[in-house]
Specification:
Elements lengths: L1 E6 L5 H12 L2 E4 H12 L3 H8 L4 H16 L5 E4 L3 H4 L3 E7 L2 H8 L13 H23 L11 E4 L5 H14 L3 E4 L4 E2 L9 H10 L8 E7 L2 E5 L2 H9 L5 E8 L10 H4 L4 H11 L12
Helix pairs in contact: 1-8, 2-4, 6-7, 9-10
Length: 298
């Protein structure tokens, strides 16, 4: 089986690839490794290669051709493609996209200093730079191939690793790949409330917990995606209940893009009414802070 694996920076792709290699004998095709080898061939650093790629798309074409040639030559094998664009170029591939909330990504990468691109002076700088690099990468591939790398509709499995270990992530991918159904799993603490604070409370959330067995059955709700950020469509009290119960992820039965029309007849982006005051109240009720806040929250 071919698995195309990409995801937000810090979401755990490297550790996940190691598990597939060590536990299941999968070969790993890493675009990062190919990129480093290609830079060596050109006699430049990977940092310089990245800089050149911003304006000269021939570098991307060359690297992605290596990806396509490898896939064609290895049909029928078990391979994980750690690649931003494998989902786009390869046929008969299970497509996985990993999410992570920016604050958790910063916690994971800060201090590792694995490359010149990953040296940060503080956790806050790491969070800011990771989000910036994420957006720049998507913009670049949009220009090069006219695709949105972060469009959920491109993938079979959207999986948020914010509250998952690499081993848990690995098991979920194995389970879901056998079903071949499209599914979206998101960590509750990576979802922002859309409605003002008057619409939710701890007491209401506790009532939800009494009614729903959130520990046995995966809670389900619809979400709104604004840029790379996810918001509730109703059900703030269910989301609050999931955070209070420390649920690892919810299932999104529908993810509306910002221009889509909601069942209530409203454009999705206009549905979001939360202010920063509301978000601060949400953080207090949930006993955590997002640390990163979308631009559309004022």
């Amino acid at each position: 089986m071919f698995i195309a694996l990409n995801g937000q920076l810090g979401s755990g792709k490297t550790a996940l690839c190691a598990l597939f290699r060590d536990l299941d004998g999968y070969d790993i095709f890493s675009t990062g490794k190919i990129q480093r080898e290609y830079a060596n061939e050109l006699g430049i650093s990977t940092l310089e290669l990245n800089e050149r790629s911003k304006t000269d798309y021939s570098y991307d074409y060359a690297i992605d051709k290596k990806l396509m040639d490898y896939g064609e030559a290895n049909k029928g094998k078990n391979i994980v493609f750690d690649s931003r664009m494998a989902w786009h170029f390869l046929k008969d591939v299970y497509k996985v996209h990993l999410l992570i909330r920016p604050a958790t990504a910063a916690d994971r990468v800060f201090g590792k200093r694995e490359s010149k691109e990953e040296t940060y002076k503080s956790r806050e700088e790491a969070m800011s730079e990771l989000v910036k690099r994420r957006d720049m990468e998507n913009d670049r591939y949009n220009k090069v191939y006219n695709v949105n790398m972060y469009d959920f509709r491109n993938y079979d499995l959207i999986l948020d690793t914010t509250k998952l270990t690499p081993e848990e992530t690995y098991q979920i991918i194995l389970r879901e790949s056998s079903k071949r159904e499209s599914v979206v799993y998101v960590a509750p603490n990576n979802i922002y409330p859309s409605n003002p604070k008057e619409t939710y409370s701890v007491d209401k959330a506790k009532e939800v917990l009494k009614i729903m067995d959130v520990y046995t059955h995966i809670p389900t709700m619809s979400l709104i995606k604004i840029g790379e950020n996810l918001f509730t469509y109703e059900k703030e009290n269910l989301l609050l209940a999931c955070n209070l119960a420390d649920i690892k992820f919810i299932k999104a039965d529908k993810v509306y893009t910002e221009e889509e029309i909601l069942p209530n007849g409203q454009k999705a982006i206009d549905y979001i009414k939360s202010s920063m005051t509301d978000i601060r109240e949400w953080e207090k009720l949930n006993n955590f802070t997002f640390d990163f806040y979308p631009e559309n929250i004022k």
